[in-house]
Amino acid sequence: MTTQISKVAIVTGASRGIGAVIARQLAREGFAVAVNYASSATEASALVVELRQAGHRAIAIKADVANADDVRRMFDETETQLGKVDVLINNAGILKVMPLAQHTDELFDQTFNIHARGTFNTLREAATRLNAGGRIVNFSSSTVGMNLPGYAVYIASKAAVESLTQVFAKEMRGRNITVNAVAPGPVATDLFLHGKSEEQIQTFARMPPLERLAQPEDISRVVAFLVGPDSAWVNGQILRVNGGLV
């Protein structure tokens, strides 16, 4: 009897929020999952325990995606413990809303380091280390199409992710690797809800024609589609997953 080898996925920023839900979804669909985290060690460990108890293969790896050496080590550890990587999900992110004029140099750098540099670092590593036929899903944001006041630096960093996605898809020619991005609207996670009043939350919930906030599962199901066989002809695209918001 032969043992079927599962495909391997790295999910960055996967200790909580959308990333944790994506990790659970991919594990259920048969992937061995590397749960990347930057600081939330307790949550990442708990998620790995949960996945293993459900019969899945999973590991937690601390790595700062903005650090090229950390990213290289993340791929090394994943290959050693789970196998060569088939899927990369670039989910790590931060969101701090304030007028452009009030941004500090440090906040600007942090935002671009995690979103733009982090995506660049992982794509550069994936270029030579991802299995042929692999899948990459980056994370943008529907705010790129909305140009909301207070989101200028965040939007600029996510616009960079969209450009990296579309060019990198073309640079992967010959390896049968698809590169796409999802661009969610407001999602009911701690990242979005933190610091907002109930009135502000309800205002965002009423904005899409479907009149609700997204749930993390709304996003994870789209990611699962993009890494699955049914999306083989979807490449270099930005999917606005936002209930018709923009």
UniProtKB/TrEMBL annotation:
PANTHER family: NADPH-DEPENDENT ALDEHYDE REDUCTASE-LIKE PROTEIN, CHLOROPLASTIC-RELATED, RE15974P. It comes from the Bacteria. It comes from Pseudomonas migulae. Belongs to the short-chain dehydrogenases/reductases (SDR) family. The keyword Oxidoreductase applies. Residues 7-190 form the Ketoreductase domain. The keyword Oxidoreductase applies. This is 3-oxoacyl-[acyl-carrier protein] reductase. Keywords: Oxidoreductase. GO terms for molecular function: oxidoreductase activity, acting on CH-OH group of donors. Pfam families: adh_short_C2. SMART domains: PKS_KR.
